[in-house]
Amino acid sequence: MVSLLTRRLRFKNSLLYFLVLALGVMSNSCSMHWSKALSKGKRQKTDFREKVSAVNKTGLLFIPVVIEGREYLFLLDSGAPFSISKELQEELKYKRISSGKMRDTDNQLLKVNYVSVDEIRVGGVAFQEQTAFVANFDSNPILSCLNIDGIIGSNLMRFCNWEVDVQKEEIQLLSTLDSNDLRGYTSIPFRTDRQYNIYLDLIVDTLILRNITLDFGSNGSLSLPEPSFDALQWSESISAVAVEEGWSQSGLSGNRVVQTERIAILDSLSVGNVWFENLKVNSGSSSLLGLKALSNYSVMVDWQHQTLFLKKKTNEPIDHRSLGFTLGVLNDTSFYIQSVHKKSKAEELGLRPNLKVLSLNDLVFNKNAKFCDYVALMSSSPNELRIGFIDEQGNYRTLTLLREELIFVPIENQ
């Protein structure tokens, strides 16, 4: 039997990567269907209100969990199923309960195994008999650098209510909600599917964007498939776009594929009665609302009543500036320009996809630095960067780039 399982994991700091992992068509080789496997599980019966401090890495939230008495670091991701690393599966000797095949966002076919985790504790809350897919996070360079042991996904999250405060880097787990918990929040209904994704409808002017996934595992703002992005243009909701050209290394396989991405700024859009302003939207393969869009909000997810609650806490403007390029790596030894923003200073001064990169600031690749040092550097959002590279004529050059606003070209001039 062939089923559709869509999973979106997006890592993107302000200038680094657009990373989306989509688990696509999956066929099960064992008797247990994937939807039945994901529906398994339970949590402790007692009432609880548990606060957990999160760690912000590249604009994503990571929380400590305990499995069999040992602490591990997991990504909080409402747009993905519960997952553990292959190293953790081998360490804890979990047996496979099901398996299947799926295609990642770069259309690479992958084999996936499912295991049952007897118990995982988040703070003082115990979740039992949870189904997790086993992932090789080291296959993708940026995932490898994040050093995660797994993903707290939607099929686990559905067993209680979650409050996510991006600014405070704090997560709260609640067995029940009362009126005091929801004071100052605006309610928004949502839908789910067999994977327990959270689906919302967004409104831009008169255009309704349906089934947008609320994805805590994305550090971008809004991503839309090409047809939806086209609809925004046809409805004149956007009048200018920026373009990023080069390669994507966005799937779990870590393979490179050619990619052209369009970018626009939406003046406003609404989710229920909540309005977002100055929101960046990217064209791609997924429909998702990411953590960056929610950075000024506290978010409460009420699974029992399928209701999302949002409360605005700050009015910090979202920074859309860029250095104009991203870096890629092959086998942790060959560093190259992965993508370049058209019309940017980086392109004007000669950066092109595939050019070899030798250094960034004080990082000299293959001497005192590796790709993970680049990830750490870009996570600090530097406003200035010095790059050493080999240009198209084979000459060594250095450039100093400043973080600048993207160059948007009117659509009629495209």
What can you tell me about this protein's structure?
There is one protein chain. With 414 residues, this protein is mainly beta. The chain has three domains: 2-174, Cathepsin D, subunit A, domain 1 (Beta Barrel), CATH 2.40.70; 191-291, Acid Proteases (Cathepsin D, subunit A, domain 1), CATH 2.40.70; 325-407, Pdz3 Domain (Roll). The chain is 11% helix and 46% strand. It has seven helices and 33 strands. The protein has helices spanning 34-39, 86-92, 141-146, 154-157, 226-234, 345-348, 371-379, and strands at residues 2-4, 10-11, 19-20, 25-28, 42-43, 49-53, 55-57, 60-67, 70-76, 83-85, 96-103, 109-122, 125-135, 150-152, 161-165, 170-174, 186-189, 199-204, 207-214, 222-225, 240-248, 257-271, 274-284, 288-289, 297-302, 307-312, 325-330, 334-341, 357-360, 363-364, 384-390, 396-402, 409-410. Strands 1, 4, 5, 7, 8, 9, 10, 11, 12, 13 and 14 form an eleven-stranded mixed beta sheet that branches. It has a six-stranded antiparallel beta sheet with strand order 6-16-15-25-26-17, with no helix packed on it. A six-stranded mixed barrel has the order 18-19-24-20-23-22. Mean pLDDT is 88; it is low at 1-30.
Provide a concise account of the structure shown.
The chain has 414 residues and is mainly beta. The chain contains 7 helices and 33 strands.
Q: Which tags fit this structure?
A:
Cathepsin D, subunit A, domain 1, disordered N terminus, 6-stranded antiparallel beta sheet, single chain, 414 residues, 11-stranded mixed beta sheet, mainly beta, 33 strands, 7 helices, Pdz3 Domain, 3 domains
